[in-house]
Amino acid sequence: MSITKKVLALGAVGLMAAGLAACSSDAEGATEGGDVECNVGISMPTRSLERWINDGEQLEALLKDEGCTVDLQYADNKTSEQISQIQNQIAGGAKILVVAPIDGEVLSPVLSEAKKTQDAVVISYDRLINGTEDIDYYATFDNAKVGKMQGEFIVDQLGLDDGEGPFNLEPFAGSPDDNNAKFFFSGAWDVLLPYVENGQLVVPSGKSPKSNDEWASIGIQGWASDKAQAEMDNRLTSFYSGDEKVDVVLSPNDSLAIGIEASLKSAGYAPGEDYPLITGQDADKANVKAILDGEQAMTVLKDTRKLGEAVFEMIKQIVAGDEVETNVTYDNTKFDVPTAQLDPVVVTKDNVQEEIIDSGFIDASELGL
Length: 369
Ligand code: GAL
Hints:
It comes from Paramicrobacterium chengjingii. Residues 40-322 form the Periplasmic binding protein domain. This is Sugar-binding protein. InterPro entries: Bact_Solute-Bind_Prot2, Peripla_BP_I, SBP_2_dom. Residues 1-21 form the signal peptide. The protein folds into two domains: 13-135 and 303-342, Rossmann fold (3-Layer(aba) Sandwich), CATH 3.40.50; 143-301 and 363-367, Response regulator (Rossmann fold, 3-Layer(aba) Sandwich). The protein is α/β, with parallel strands linked by helices. The chain has helices at residues 50-65, 79-91, 108-118, 143-158, 179-197, 225-239, 254-266, 285-292, 304-320, 352-358, and strands at 3-5, 39-44, 69-74, 96-99, 121-125, 137-141, 167-171, 201-202, 248-250, 277-278, 299-301, 328-331, 336-342, 345-347. Strand 4, helix 3 (108-118) and strand 5 form a beta-alpha-beta unit. Beta-D-galactopyranose binds next to loops.
């Protein structure tokens, strides 16, 4: 799966002509002059993971403010439910579909239906939809960079470059059906595997993929906190007796981290001297609190407001008949999908104020501050 950089300043996303109704677009299915109606179906994976609520509601608000018709749906992490929700959106006249897939491999049939019946323009949101030509654009963050940031944070904090170690590492990966999860893992493992191979990092549970291709072997289905907690419980009871301690946990996101932290807490770990270094992603409220309380070392902020704005710009350009601005492409096994890719940001207790509170991502009162 390859990513190609196209030098187009995403920041300079062209502003669309005023008024969404009178439109033109050069997206597939829109005749010159771009009479694509701003009737948008938004399909999000679940409400059980905090970020998707923000993603859906923020984009819905932007579009409604512009006078678009919007149908926002959440699919409770069930692919059959997501497929039937998209079918309803197609039947309801959606001309533009924004889809964050639960499973990026199973949407081809419903998307070809969307093309046949509505000539719909399809934007893959945050996660790439694979194996179909019936998508037009993708918008996401640099997901390999998220993993690289987590890996480099661990190297830096443990002093691995100065030869420190050995340290006990427990790596986790994301949901096996999520195309992003392999990017998070390979981004981190490309940084960490050399230290596993030279013995500075040891994985007592043996859950240590020999290569990036084996990432799904340590994947947690559905990004479920309770499954991550159970997995950590199992590793602690099976591989950590006596004085053996976990020193560092590679957690690909915050929902897994919160489960892992609960498991460590019930095993008697407490913030301070012997508490492990734990990574994360998404800057969920509970995890930002955990960072302030010393129970998590970092998270990676992917500002959902910026992703919403990037997709909103794409939709405005589609409706206006303008060229849709992108800056890279992602190969979805059928073609190189034009993509708007944004940059993630590392957040630790040292920059929570600036990146999370001052930016307005989370209100201080919601963090008990
Ligand atoms: C990924 C997404 C992450 C995280 C995870 C669980 O696809 O990029 O930000 O939220 O899903 O929802």
